[in-house]
Amino acid sequence: MQALEALTRDARALANGDVVPAPPLTGAEAExxxxxxxxxxxxxxEGFCAVFPAMTxxxxxxKADIHFIANLCxxxxxxxxxxxxxxxHEFAVNIPQAMAQVRGQTYADYAWPPALGAxxxxxxxxxxxxxxxxxxxxxxxxxxLHGQGLAALWSTPQGGFYGIFPHNLLVGLFAPVFLFATxxxxxxxxxxxxxxxxxxxxxxxxxxxxxxATDAVLRLKYLDGGHGEGCHNxxxxxxxxxxxxxxxxxxxxxxxxxxxxxxTLYHYLLGQAAPYDLPSLPKLLGGVGGISLALGxxxxxxxxxxxxxxxxxxxxxxxxxxxxxxxxxxxxxGLLLWAARGTPALALMLCLHLGAVMALFATLPYGKxxxxxxxxxxxxxxxxxxxQPHPIGLGAD
Length: 397
Ligand code: SF4
Ligand code: SF4
Description:
This protein has helices spanning 2-15, 27-42, 51-56, 63-72, 78-82, 95-110, 123-146, 160-164, 167-199, 207-219, 241-270, 281-306, 317-339, 346-363, 370-385; strands at 231-232, 238-239. By secondary structure, the protein is mainly alpha-helical.
């Protein structure tokens, strides 16, 4: 009833040409707005990352501005440990935690299709079920195709990978899942982009802004603490470990993806079927990528276990750890598959690896992977906005 009255009031105001006030912020967004008002008066952390320069361009923090700024935050924790107003101070400023809570909400709110945004709420369970379903799918398929029961999978199959699962069957299974994941991520981030663009000057992307944001993404610039030596933790020591492990993970993932893409070209253009041997390009890319991904995710897991309890959003730990674990399993099962060639373990290793990859693809749009996509969009908008005249009359950033 109250919602109907509010709608009627807004409709009347619009008809009269009045400005309709934005609805008041609630929950995590209201908390970020409260804390940013304090930071805006303090500004001690101005040089740490992109969040604080973006904050100083604003006197107020409506919803879209908060979504934008929350996705600029890299959750390094440095501003918490630098803050004289952090708990137990009565101001209770904890920017990494407040930003993480809003980010988690934005992933779910902008998810496509919207109903699947709920998967973020039980993400640990979602990942576990996806992995179990992926493994079951390939084990059942292997038994169905070869018809000799599970135990018979422990044998040395003829014809390599495609002697176990025909190439066209794998393409038919993976291509729709991957295309759906790409579409879902693209449509989700498009909604985010449309919401935050008016809040970030509305100016279009330019080549210099794109180049700057790309550089910030590829180098993880905002995990360097603002001075290149890294972010600091509660012991005040600078560390680049978070940045290094993210780089190993990100570039490892990209190399594995490149290996699959090159292998597809080998298959269709050169007529050469997998598996490949060293020193072929797919093998080199996959081997280096797999090792890098395994090392990076092992490091991120270690950092996650040591993370200060006040940093980040505790409710998102299952999502963070589940994603790291699934990436680690994908990398190590790929490497084990390599080692299992010509042994009786090949079929089972192949089922394990394909099940992990399938679970990873299927959950990409509804888990931690989304943070890279939304943060890239926020960094692009930041690079555009900082090139516009300063709205508070302080000149360009
Ligand atoms: S996090 Fe604390 S120290 Fe940093 S700008 Fe905000 S109020 Fe100031
Ligand atoms: S947690 Fe790190 S990235 Fe996020 S606002 Fe604080 S200093 Fe910036």
